[in-house]
Amino acid sequence: MSTSSWPRITDLFTTGTGDVALMGAPLGLGSVTPGRCADAPRVVRETLKRFSTYDVETGRELAVRIADKGDAPVAELMPADAFAPVRDHAAHCTASHALTLVIGGNNAVTRPAAHGLGLPLSQVGLITLDAHFDLRGTDEGPRNGNPIRCLLEDGLPGRNIVQIGLAPYANTAAMHRTAKEEGIGVITISDVKKRGIVDVLEDAFVRLSHCPALMVDFDIDVIDRAQCPGAPGARPGGMPVDMFFEAARWVGGHRKVKLADLTEFDPGLDVSDITALTAGRWVCEMLAGFSERT
Ligand SMILES: [Mn+2]
């Protein structure tokens, strides 16, 4: 199949000015469960060759130009040392693009990515789709289990945060208490399944209406493990993958969203490319949402 007869998402990549910036943050060290999250940006770019630009559901052809801004040089670094490189790489992207997609890396990339918006944290709203609060202690420095705690300590107000998809028996009572005390919005996975993701996201955007800029952390472990084997933290009973895609398209469509990250994809755990193809489709859905921005 030639490029011309089967246009691929990768054909939308440009070395010139793009509408959307894509960057990798191959941070693999500092995970609660050691693994190969650092390989994810490479695998996602490779997998994007398997996606066409045509959405048969809407009859629309994607025509967004994607500026591939390469990877932040963090593959061998611990999260503390990766902070400045990821922040600066993200800042370079967000300064000249309406939307930046950050392919992690473990969830420790979310903290520097938030700083990469280049705004005071008081003006930043953060939505997480994640099975976990990520409020572990910071005694041993930043890790993939504590980016939200780190951001609170950095000065991100709890009322600027909404966490969606929290899983039972995957978090502690102390974390839940902290989230409530800090004013974080908490929506469990069963709440999302009952209400639907768009209803939940609409509420989250109202709650964060005081924030001029939003970022969304898509921790892929929010997805049901059977549909997402390549994420160490994913559990049975998680979010249906269709709901994850619906969320990506909806979020991508909103002007206030300046950055979205996809974290915790570990290609070393993947089965039959399920998670790689999920990550690739996430990029497509973010782009489709972006295309519909008004
Ligand atoms: Mn997480």
Automatic annotation (TrEMBL):
- Is Metal-binding one of the keywords UniProt gives this record? yes
InterPro entries, sorted: Ureohydrolase (IPR006035), Ureohydrolase_dom_sf (IPR023696)
- State the superkingdom: Bacteria
Q: Which UniProt keywords apply?
A: Hydrolase, Metal-binding
SUPFAM superfamilies xrefs: Arginase/deacetylase (SSF52768)
Single GO MF descriptor = metal ion binding
Q: Name one GO biological process term.
A: putrescine biosynthetic process from arginine, via agmatine
Keyword tRNA processing, does the record have it?
no
Q: Which family does it belong to?
A: Belongs to the arginase family.
- The name under which this protein is listed is Arginase family protein
Please report the organism this UniProt entry assigns to the protein. Answer: Allosphingosinicella flava
Q: What is the lineage of its organism?
A: Bacteria, Pseudomonadati, Pseudomonadota, Alphaproteobacteria, Sphingomonadales
